[in-house]
Specification:
It is built from 22 helices and 27 strands. The protein is of the alpha/beta class.
């Protein structure tokens, strides 16, 4: 039986396990990336491993999230990241150099290689045939130290693309259509491969938009073939030597196949407050727009912004609309300026923001109260924009630009003239924004600088055999990491300060949660389906652990978050009978006994009053040992790397 693209790359990097879906596999990791919102904790973990030098082929620390420096906190974190990277053999991408996924795609990604990053949108690199995973910072630190990356072997989904996109219909619309079909949990436990005749007409940046948005499906990762389109992109970046052709075998077997005819696709829009709340743009053309934000790691490539510039050329943004543009990298910004597109953008009345994540992570440019904000981003979770009642819609750059001019949601296919942009034969390359680490001899005596906002890495405690706990919070389905540990300019500067950060845990759901959890011995959180979807931020596990949470019981979990819970020493349990969720209330007591034996058996009985419920404990032997040790850091300290 033939192999899929993902199976081929996994087989080439397999350290233990086999390709049977559902089994645990350990992978050798070639490259890692971190960003500054999650990177500080990752490097604190790396320092705690007492390993003098990273052992990957390439590791890069990007600064692209916390770039607003309203106080000393972000600047201190950046200084820490630069000095720790220099000492441990990690390249450092300076603030302003660009968004990690866009820069990595342009300058460092290689087909056939493995990549993990402390950011859930690391699968962006799958657009050029990498097998790229979002992961918690501790997992990234372990990989940098030479350890394996462990995943449950996923199922294989294939999306067959036929036909070609009509003018005004984009890769973003392909992503939103798949979200409409599968939902935000439809990709859980699967790798999504893209193939079919329609793939050949998609550029690498378009493919990267699609693999980026795969994170919103809950997929383990997404990947495209590496073909002549990939080769042309790499050649234009001056790195044709990095090309390797990768395609599935003709007799590869997939667990599910989805067919999509691109010629029938129309512009799509994700309505508040979930990426899978997808409708036709044409059905919402009477909705007045207050704000438009174009950029993010999803849609900030040169081609994206050239199309925006062509739509804006000679026009003005509607008087009641505020438009922001965030180029994805310094390369994109430089080339926009050279070709004149930047002048067209600025002449329209748009505001140019830094080459950074910016509004996508709630770092500035929040909408007005109750304002309608159209964004070319990947997430529109409640409150993520920084405005709690902001009405955030996800759209393509073409829909965004057309709507900014008209002042109402606008289907770009109705425009008289639509731009046709071709990829340049060569990109303007300047890697001076990426600093090389110190030579190993000099690195030994180099100092790592820590500001007062950087606190110690919190560690959990060994898992007892009995826990008598209390449900300190009950939440519903699709709770995101933004619910658990919000983003935004107010909170992000404290990502390296867990004690202070803990004040904001579950602020969106219940402002009283932090104090209640801290005052409760052995807190338990009760969740619904797809608990922990969204970001890879391990703070959503570290902070509850710091507040005394010992266990999370849910109907189901998102992949990265359940790994982060285990790494933090929090026991994740799944309700065997989903109906038991309705009978459990916040404040009720739950007694867990014989936990160690229950973990091995895969089922753990619990007592709630005079009622007994059963909880699935789907843990590998390695994960059980991590929990018994009190989390990944303690496990590594005991020789578990």
């Amino acid at each position: 039986m033939g192999k899929t693209i993902a199976q081929k790359i996994i087989a080439a990097h397999l350290l233990s396990g086999d390709l049977t879906a559902g089994s645990e596999v350990a992978l050798r990791i070639d490259q890692t990336l971190t960003q500054d919102a999650t990177g500080t904790m990752a490097y604190l973990a790396l320092e705690g491993m007492n390993i003098p030098r990273v052992k990957t082929e390439l590791s890069i620390a990007y600064v692209d999230h916390n770039t607003l420096q309203c106080g000393f906190e972000n600047a201190d974190d950046h200084q820490y990241l630069q000095t720790v990277a220099a000492k441990y053999g990690v390249r450092f991408s300076r603030p302003g150099n660009g968004i990690c996924h866009q820069v990595h795609l342009e300058r460092f990604g290689k087909p056939g290689k493995t990549l993990i990053g402390s950011d859930s949108h690391t699968p962006t690199a799958g657009g050029m045939g990498m097998l790229a995973f979002g992961a918690g910072g501790m997992d990234v630190a372990a990989a940098m130290g030479g350890g394996a990356y462990y995943i449950t072997m996923p199922k294989m989904f294939r999306v067959n693309l036929t036909g070609a996109l009509r003018p005004g219909v984009t890769a973003k619309d392909i992503s939103l259509e798949l979200l409409r079909i599968l939902s935000v949990k439809g990709g859980v436990g699967a790798i999504i491969e893209w193939g079919g005749e329609g793939v050949s007409a998609l550029s690498v940046p378009e493919r990267a938009t699609i693999t980026n948005m795969g994170a919103e499906l809950g997929a383990t990762t997404s990947v495209f073939p590496s073909d002549k389109v990939t080769r042309k992109f790499l050649a234009a970046q001056g790195r044709e030597e990095d090309f390797t052709a990768i395609a599935p075998d003709a007799d590869a077997v997939y667990d599910r196949v989805i067919d999509m005819d691109l010629s029938k696709l129309t512009p799509r829009i994700a309505c508040p407050h979930s990426p899978d709340n997808v409708k036709n743009v044409a059905d919402l053309e009477d909705v007045r727009v207050d704000q438009v934000c174009i950029g993010s790691c999803t849609n900030s490539s040169l081609a994206d912004l050239q199309k925006v510039a062509a739509i804006l050329k000679g026009k003005k943004v509607a008087p009641h609309v505020s438009l922001s543009i965030s180029p994805g990298s310094r390369q994109v910004l430089s080339m926009l300026a050279k070709c004149g597109a930047l002048e067209d953008i600025l002449a329209s009345g748009a505001r140019l923001l830094e080459c950074a994540c910016g509004p996508c992570i709630g770092m500035g440019f929040s909408p007005n109260s109750g304002g309608v904000s159209l964004r070319t981003f990947n997430r529109n979770f409640l409150g993520r924009s920084g405005t709690k009642d902001g009405q955030v819609y996800l759209v393509s750059p073409e829909t965004a630009a057309a709507s900014a001019v008209r002042g109402y949601i606008t289907d770009p296919t109705t425009l008289k003239e639509l731009p046709r942009i071709t990829m340049p034969e060569s990109f303007s390359t300047d890697d001076s924004g990426v600093l090389m680490p110190l030579e190993e001899a000099k690195a030994r005596d180099a100092k790592v600088l820590r500001g007062p906002n950087i606190k110690e890495f919190p560690v959990g405690k060994a898992l007892e055999d009995t826990i008598a706990g209390t449900v300190v919070l009950k939440v519903g389905d699709n709770i995101t990491t933004d619910h658990i540990m919000p983003a935004g300019a107010k909170i992000l500067p404290y990502r390296s300060n867990i004690p202070y950060l803990s004040k904001f845990c579950f602020e969106v759901c219940d402002p009283e949660f932090p104090q209640r959890a801290k005052s409760t011995e052995n807190g338990i959180i009760l969740g619904g389906e797809n608990y922990g979807q969204g970001s890879s931020r391990e703070h959503a596990a570290l902070v509850p652990m710091y507040l005394g949470v010992r266990c999370v019981i849910a109907k189901s979990f998102a992949r990265i978050h359940v790994a982060n819970l285990i790494n933090a020493g929090i026991l994740p349990l799944t309700l065997e009978n989903g109906e038991d969720y309705d009978s459990l209330d916040q404040g009720c007591s739950i007694s867990l006994k014989d936990i160690h034996a229950g973990m091995k058996a895969g089922m753990l009985p619990a007592t709630v009053g005079d009622k007994k419920i059963f909880l699935r404990c789907d843990l590998t032997p390695r994960q059980q040992n991590i929990l018994l040790a009190g989390g990944l850091m303690k496990y590594i300290g005991e020789g578990g790397l």
